[in-house]
Prior knowledge:
By secondary structure, this protein is mainly α. The protein has helices at 2-26, 29-50, 53-72, 76-106, 111-121, 134-140, 146-152, 155-169, 174-200, 202-217, 220-237, 239-249, 255-272, 275-288, 294-307, 312-327, 333-349, 355-370, 377-380, 385-407, 415-423. The chain has a single domain, classed as Proton glutamate symport protein (Orthogonal Bundle), CATH 1.10.3860. The radius of gyration is 23 Å and the shape is globular. The model is unreliable at 122-132 and 413-424 (pLDDT under 50).
Amino acid sequence: MIKWLSVITLLALAAGIGVGAWVASTGNAGLVELATQVGHIGDLWLNLLRMTVIPLVVSLLITGVASVASAASTGKLAARSIFVFGVLLVSATAFACLVFPLFLALWPVDPTAASAFIGRAATSEVSAAGPPTLGEWLAALAPSNIIASASRGDILPLVVFAMMFGLAATRLPPDQRMPMVGFFRAVADTMIVIVRWVLVAAPVGVFALALGVGLMAGLAIAGLIAQYVVIVSIVTALIVPMAFIFAIVWGRVPPGRFLTATGPVLAVAISSRSSLASLPLMVERSRDALGVPQRVAGIVLPLAVAIFRMTSPVANLGVVFFCAAVFGVKLGPTEIIVGGFVAIAISIGSVGLPGEISFVASVAPISMAMGVPIELLGLLVAVEAVPDIFRTVGNVSGDMAATVIAAKGEPAILPEEIAAARHG
């Protein structure tokens, strides 16, 4: 259903821009007023997505961090895997923070299209937040009132609170911890159900949003969206060779062997756009083509699919950098560091579902933390199917690389397994 919905939504995006541009060209005041009113349906649809962001992010982070901490306590292999995930995530995030501004400097957004879109977004009274001082930023990390922070959309304090809450939950006895973690997992699943419901109406919502944009910007906005798709897709795709380099240098796997092992996995990832759907083949290729012990692949890869998404901070930051360029928001080192931190935290708790479902919930917190308006997300979700292919390909490449790195130095057969075989 998601694939067909993506196609229909993409067609609705094109139709909305085209109809809006045509209405503007007619100069008919009645048609312009009608198109303006229809555009508010898009605002409603976007607000329906927005309302799931806070509960979904907090719930996913609490359950995700609790899972990470629990996994680390189960053994050295899991702890080493989490360390590898962290190194790869930080490296990918730093890469994104350096490369995206460079791309946008070499290929700046069209000022005409950007100004027209800002004129459309101005009706929603959205403004970028001014950068805080270092002292103000540090003081704001600990929210004095969680409810107030949520109502204001202050994401970074909520992320800190959720991570501390998840870590603290691991210190509770199982009979107290498990029901609480189950509750937050149920909240996250409920929010995802709501998001699925809202996405059923994505063609209508996106058409309405695009109608208003086409009314203000005409067909110039199409070039802006195409530029977004190209930039985010290229930079996200570069994570694949980065993962290969980590596997070759750190995991000490010959390049040809790693390429041969991952080839079938990448094919499944492209067709399914799901790391979870690629998991069985990843286990098989890691074991048979890369020589990873079964017990290692059986621990590292499920853990990777659950909590490690190497391209998540990359692609999500790309969306925010592009939106900042459109709205003319200047991002300094402080905003970029904050965005990188939030992007990594969000990637830990993000859901392993196609990008259209998790797009707004993953990107909006980063945008809000960096002071970038999120009005453009309702349109960009319509073309998320293209960058999402590269997200998945990069993720499974990172999963395979992390597996061979974590397996390095791990014996093929444990001493206790040898002893059991002798006695058997």
